[in-house]
Automatic annotation (TrEMBL):
Keyword Cell membrane (UniProt): no
InterPro entries: dTDP_Gluc_deHydtase (IPR005888), NAD(P)-bd_dom (IPR016040), NAD(P)-bd_dom_sf (IPR036291)
Name assigned to this protein: dTDP-glucose 4,6-dehydratase
Gene3D superfamilies on file: NAD(P)-binding Rossmann-like Domain, UDP-galactose 4-epimerase, domain 1
Transmembrane residue ranges: none
Cofactor(s), by name: NAD(+)
Enzyme class, broadest EC rank: lyase
Keyword Transmembrane: no
GO molecular function: dTDP-glucose 4,6-dehydratase activity
PANTHER family in alphabetical order: DTDP-D-GLUCOSE 4,6-DEHYDRATASE-RELATED
Entry EC no(s): 4.2.1.46
Lineage: Bacteria, Pseudomonadati, Pseudomonadota, Alphaproteobacteria, Hyphomicrobiales
Pfam families in the cross-refs: GDP_Man_Dehyd (PF16363)
Amino acid sequence: MRILVTGGAGFIGSALVRHLVGEIGAEVLNVDTLTYAGNLASLKSVESAPNYQFLRADICDRARMQEAFASFRPDIVMHLAAESHVDRSILGAADFIQTNIVGTFSLLDTARHYWDELDARRKSAFRFLHVSTDEVYGSLGDEGLFEETTPYDPSSPYSASKAASDHLAIAWHRTYGLPVVVSNCSNNYGPFHFPEKLIPLMILNALEGKPLPVYGNGANVRDWLYVEDHARALFTIASRGRPGEKYNVGGRNERRNIDVVHRICAILDGVYSDRGPHARLITNVTDRPGHDARYAIDASKLESELGWKAQETFETGIEKTVHWYLENEWWWRPLRENVYSGERLGVFKGR
Ligand code: NAD
Ligand code: TYD
């Protein structure tokens, strides 16, 4: 099985590539332009595997994408390349529009022309998995869950750009017959997570004795999924999902942000009892503009139709994650020193 992965040097992409190369034994071509969020160090464990290749290229570059399809000849495309951080999208949306919308268009259209020329057997087996987020559905109140049929209602430039790309992906199926499948997943966490997102930022700030900035009152709810569970779900959907369908991915792990931060502090208290309660570092800061109140996923379609189920609970996953950061300073120290040191992003006067 030949799988072209875009964004394989990112957080979820690298977990997926490690799973495909190491456990599934697929032939993998990882196409990634290496933005600030792309990091080949996350792929050290597979970089010299005979079934792994890397191509540094921008998905918006049609000519390079056509060459990659023509020479690698994928059976499956798993498209993860994106700008992914809500706060950066508030600061400036141009890269989000370019990569998430224009880049997805470029990839879909390249895939369509490549797919059109395949023989009948390969044509019917081909799949294009477009990897998306539950943030396209907008914000929930205290009750209810996102279902695949929930209307789109995105709040941030990031989620609006992902919503646009989801619509393009489904349109390429309805109009051209390209066998597209779309997945919408809740918040991921785990090893190799770039320390701009809530969980790794809180772990590293707490370790360094810095403030833990909780937006607003910390009552916003996210539904957390361990990244390796997501990687397994993505392969399940790409290999067995029905063309034209959407699948929600999540593990029923809703938590308020403030409770997540307290849990991280408690784990660190257990390791470094001499450093005092880490929760003293928690600081309430100005809220994020357009901050969605609650996300919660109903993944029963994926569970009943394709037999996937999350293996980690939040309690087991967060424990593993905190310990991974404690043991892998070689990975995060260069990022904190040279790429992003944790300053607040995405607030502006007037909000
Ligand atoms: P990430 O920011 O960690 O990684 C994105 C990767 O894409 C990076 O390696 C980057 O170099 C690459 N990339 C960016 N622009 C590119 C371009 N123009 N051409 C080629 N490569 C490019 O993101 P992530 O958290 O791993 O998310 C991966 C995908 O999953 C995204 O599509 C995101 O929307 C989606 N998603 C993320 C989450 C989450 O919690 N992080 C949840 C659900 C869905
Ligand atoms: P984040 O990790 O940015 O993911 P997303 O915005 O895609 O859900 O944020 C998760 C939640 O944590 C979100 O409600 C915003 C909040 N948050 C903070 O309170 N403080 C922070 O420093 C960050 C980065 C996020």
